[in-house]
Amino acid sequence: MSKIVIDVNPEFCYELVCSIPYAYHLHKNNQLEKVITCKGMKPFYYFCDNVEERYNERNIDNFSNGVQNLPNSWLHHNAMAVYGKDYKELTEDQRNKVQGVLDYSEWDVPDYLNHFKNDRFKFDKPMIVIANQYNFESNWVSMSKSWNPHRYFDIKCLYEMFEYLTNKGYSVLYKRPKNTEFAVDENEKRTLTLHPQNNIKLEANVEGVGVINDYELTKHYDDVYLIDDIVEQNPNYTYNEIQLMLFANSKGFVSVSGGSGILTGYFKKPNILYCTIGREKSPHYWSKDSYYHKISDNQAIPVIDDCEEIYKRGRQDYTELLQKIKETF
């Protein structure tokens, strides 16, 4: 039997869900020849000796980015594998049950936790990772005339998380990429275009402090660490190597749904996910058979703040998120 070459440059979430588990399945069955992927992705395919980082950018067109050649070519369901029918032919109940459920017959999750666990990137106290983002994404435009992101943690929410976790005896690792650390897709490029010089300011006017952004907020705590600082202090490691090694040493995660939340799920620790858009805002998406639970060993904890409700009230509501953090950590 001839071996298989995987050649992909999709959105990061698609690579995590559709490509990497398939590649690992092929590896386990001695069927993987080579992986061709995006710049910086080699650590994610640690099990493959033949990885070519060919692509400088990601492509959200799933008919041309390589995903079309994988057993799971759609992130949100595989109706044909589950019911033997096209999604359009399913009843409403079947459509609900298939959300987030894929074909797992050629799908195995690599053990990032034990492979990347290390003694180098450890803090004195148990660590919780807060993985934030702030991007202008195209699918938001179809739902609203506003281009303003809402799938993120604002300054007040970050302050409350930092306060609670550090007072509970945890250290906190904070991550919000500037979209310059890795190969970007069209949405991330749009963010950089709208904000040249990477001037993306997630900030607020704090009484007694003045205007402060999220990166600066981390400096006000002895036990909150900014991943950018750790990357700068360790030039012999790539950004992805460092985040994988840090995540492997964590006790849990608070993230947004999507690529960031899927990646944190790989480490099989409590993983609280803030969900505002897309199919993930439906409770049906979080069944025990969904890929979020398969990847995380049933450690995914969704918190849904529907984008339509955010538009109506004019702000995010982090009440349930903060309550879940207190219940979990």
Summarize the structure.
With 329 residues, this protein is α/β, with parallel strands linked by helices. It contains 14 helices and eleven strands. The chain is 34% helix and 16% strand.
Structure notes:
By secondary structure, the chain is of the alpha/beta class. Helix content is 34%, strand content 16%. It has a 6-stranded parallel β-sheet with strand order 8-5-4-9-10-11, with helices on both faces. Strands 1-2-3 form a 3-stranded parallel β-sheet, with helices on one face. Helix 11 (259-265) links the parallel strand 9 and strand 10 (271-275). The longest helix is centred in the N-terminal third of the chain and has 17 residues, at 12-28. It starts with a strand and ends with a helix. Mean pLDDT is 91; it is low at 139-146.
Key structural traits:
329 residues, alpha/beta, 6-stranded parallel β-sheet, 3-stranded parallel β-sheet, globular
What can be said about the biggest beta sheet? 6 strands, parallel
The order of strands across the largest sheet is: 8-5-4-9-10-11
Oligomer: single chain
| Outline type | globular
Distance between the termini: 49 Å
User: Which stretches are low in confidence, meaning pLDDT under 50 for 5 or more residues running?
Assistant: 139-146
DSSP, total strands: 11
Task: Detail the topology: elements first, then pairings.
Layout: E1 4-7, H1 12-28, E2 32-38, E3 51-55, H2 79-83, H3 92-98, H4 112-116, E4 127-131, H5 138-141, H6 155-167, E5 171-175, H7 186-194, E6 203-206, E7 210-213, H8 214-218, E8 224-226, H9 227-233, H10 239-248, E9 252-256, H11 259-265, E10 271-275, H12 291-296, E11 300-304, H13 307-313, H14 319-328
Parallel strand pairs: 1-2, 2-3, 4-5, 4-9, 5-8, 9-10, 10-11
Antiparallel strand pairs: 6-7
Helix pairs in contact: 1-11
